[in-house]
Hints:
The chain is α/β, with parallel strands linked by helices. The chain is built from 21 helices and twelve strands. The strands form three sheets. The chain has a six-stranded mixed beta sheet, with helices on both faces.
Amino acid sequence: MKLRRRAARYARTTWRVLVRLGAWSLLEAGQTFLAGYALARALDAGFLAGDVRTGLLWLGAAAAAVAVGAVGTGRVYGVVAALVEPVRDRLVTGVVRRGVREADPGALSGLTQQVEIARDTLAGLVLVSRSFLFTAAGALTGLFSLDPLLLAVVLPPLLAGVALFAATLRPLAHRQEAFLTADEALAGELGAVGPGLRDITATGAEAQVAAGLGRRVDAELRAARSLARWSPARVAALALGGEVPVLLLLVSAPWLLRRGVTPGALLGALAYVGQSLYPALQNLVHGLGTSGARLTVVLRRLVPPEQPARTVRPAPPEAAPESRTPAALALSGLRFAYGPASEPVLQGLDLTLPAGAHLAVVGPSGTGKSTLTALVAGVLTPGEGTVRVHGHPVPGPDAAARRVLIPQEAYVHGGTLAENLTLHRPDPVPEDELLAAAEAVGLLPLLRKLGGPAARVDPAALSAGERQLVALTRAYLSPAPLALLDEATCHLDAEAEARAERAFAARPGGTLVVVAHRMSSARRADLVLVLDGPRTVCGTHAELPAASPLYRDLMGDWAGASDARAGRAAPGAAVTATPPPAISGWRRSGSVRPSSG
């Protein structure tokens, strides 16, 4: 969606602020109206008629209008702040979100410079645009009140000047953006060349580097010249709209006086044009012509194009032919080591996981379970091989939007519970949907205990298990279809863990990968990946005891009974009430940081 549509949508949500802005601006319009009208009446009904008292009273009215207008101007600044500061907050939120979720390299510059430029420029544009509109309204109303002939003389060149200026805005913005892009490209190349001058000289690459810099300089020069060509058009617009009306009033003065226009009205018209319309148009041309193009450029960089609307939950895999539906997770030849001299943690791993599947990852400490989730989340980069999430390569912004990682150490920030739970959702979440998610994952008792979604959260006052429930519900509400639970339920009891995993497995179109803390997680999964170095194998819980000695050891005597408790009893398996054992001696391998989806 284009910036103008976003601006219109924002204006609809802040109409009360705009009404207040218009109300206080009317005082300025009244000041402008009386500036010329009172001068005309003071001359015609006062001084020229020999009535000095009446003349002084009209001038006093004009002075009082100036004082009232000053009050309105002071109030306007506060209203403009109420209009602009929410825009700044939204821009900051967007920049921080992209920096955290997509590792946007421009986030720091956007946060420290571009957001402030956008805020200050927008405030200036609102002020000059509002001032021109209300000043023009007051002056044109005054001209019509003095004599319609005066309006007929002033209005045509004013409209022509404004139209000419408006026609320059779009090409000026494009050329301003091209100039800034060329300037940044030159600065970036100079920044790369400066530290490497010794190497450039040593390798004899001076000519090649100079040629590259020369092309950058030429590109910036062309952009600067193209931008400069539009300056005369702005000067012409200002002259046509602000200076030609004065000239026309002077040239047509004898004709106007013969048709009944009074000397005071003529002087008032000159005051309207010279003291009100021309300064307002000048501020508009300089402010909107330069700052408007600058704001457009900055906003295009800070506000990414909106993606087509999509549902919060991805469509089930049956919605498209199987041949055209990419796998939820595809690993090919995956290899990773924590150092060039280290033994690979993962070596030659191939895995294809269809959308909607439920995979449990098991194995002893150091076999790469958490490393695998970090690779899928884009926190780590494989030494060899590829990782694709729903057909999109990792790392990458498209893949980042399709997976969410819940680590063992759950993150909860200060603020309301709703703010914590909707961190991955750019738009407001209906309370019914939030409560349904809390019910599914098992957070609802804690939510009620805290006082509801609007309750403030003190992260330090929550237990480790409660923080995990908050993080799990946050991930459940995420639009990302692939959920990665890296021992994310280790502080929950077995029943709460089972409930959370079943909720994620039942998400429409959702795919679940669980680094198992208890072997009951493997029992609930459709597939189990046993990480065991060269003996790594993937299969169902029923198949793996025969295929993997390690899996058989992990299951112990409980392996057969677990299938029966899952409702998938193997032939001859006995059903017992023995609780599922935790996998003893496991620790998290690798270094995993929280990653947003």
